[in-house]
Amino acid sequence: MIATGSSCRHAVSKIHTSRHGLLRVISAPYQPHRRYAQPTPRRPDVATAKAISNEYSAKAALAIIESRSPGDPVNPARSTLPPPLDLPERDAQQNFFLYWFHIGRAYGTFYKEGVKAVWFNNKATRLLRERIKQEMKVGGEKEAASQGLISRSEWQLLQRNNHDIGKLPLFGLLAVIFGEWLPILVPFLPGVVPGTCRIPKQVRGMRAAAEERRRIIFRTANFEPEQGQLSFDATGTQGKAWPVASADYIQMLLKQMRDDQLHHLSTTLGLHSRLWDRVQLYPIGMRRKLTKHLQYLSLDDRLLSEAPSSSRLSVVELEEACTERGLDVLGRPEATLRENLSWWLKRQEEDRGRGRAMLSMLFRRSATREWVKLHLDANKRD
């Protein structure tokens, strides 16, 4: 069986599972909905405390874009992250109803600031897109990222706004209607919650579920493409810098894969609901979502690789970057996460962004240096 550690640096053993069986449905054991509204002990999250101070501002991104200051090259503005959530402790002599009133008010403030952040981030992205339009005669934000005309922090602002702004109308309405009771609904409506309104316990729960699904799918079968199955220069992109950042190139790679292999990638990257696994069907729009996410990762990898050597991801951004690449983060020290992400980016650079290294790491739970090196050496012979 494959080792289940999250690092891409450890050895893996051989898999003898048949590649061409029927659909192997990967389904995690049912777990009851988590009660995210439950107050947690007052143990400050060190990572969050470092990334989001008490001076949190929902206008942080807007202020940076309006000032045209370079800002942080890799870490997006704090307004793209959830605001601080400070739940009060209950005093032994405190009235029960008064205590829960303060809990509700804390959640109400949290969601209010999160919704405001989405609104102001959207204003910031409009200004940024206008700047991109002035600098580029043809193309949009993806082309600007590919050409290095925007920083990684600006790229993240654009992508997070694209994710959050569509959720704002419905979520804002729910926040107005339910107010402090909204956390009770969050476990039942995870798809309507903007990234700026996810409470820490919800984020941990989502990551725990995703990591468990990855452990199951890697433990169940080997979906790794066979030798010669994939052609990495079929579209005539040989010599082109970082071709996997192109949607056409990614679609070409995905067309060469079987449905069970695409399902493996979608599960590893957490791109579909476990409901599809329970009903034993492949997710609708699986190829489209994979194309979009792999292109996003490729551009993000390139921007991180080309960022100034002095730049450094915050702990919160580091955890998010690893999560997006299918790397486990729960219970892992910061040094391990930085080493894993650095190794991922290094393999991408050696591969010249052709997608061979990325797919190797996504199909192997723990890819060895020697195994990836064989694939990179093949690039030199192509």
Question: Alpha-carbon distance between the termini?
Answer: 32 Å
In N-to-C order, the SSE pattern is: HHHHHHHHHHHHHHHH
Average pLDDT confidence is: 81
- Class per helix and strand makeup: mainly alpha
Estimate the helix proportion, in percent: 40-55%
- Give the DSSP E fraction (strand runs of 2 or more residues): under 5%
Q: What general outline do the C-alpha atoms trace?
A: globular
- Radius of gyration computed on alpha carbons: 22 Å
Number of helices: 16
Q: Major sheet, described briefly?
A: none
- Low-confidence stretches are 1-54, 367-372
The count of strands amounts to 0
Count of folded domains:
2
Structure commentary:
It is a single chain. By secondary structure, the protein is mostly helical. It folds into 2 domains: 49-199, no CATH class; 222-381, no CATH class. It is 53% helix and 0% strand. It contains 16 helices and no strands.
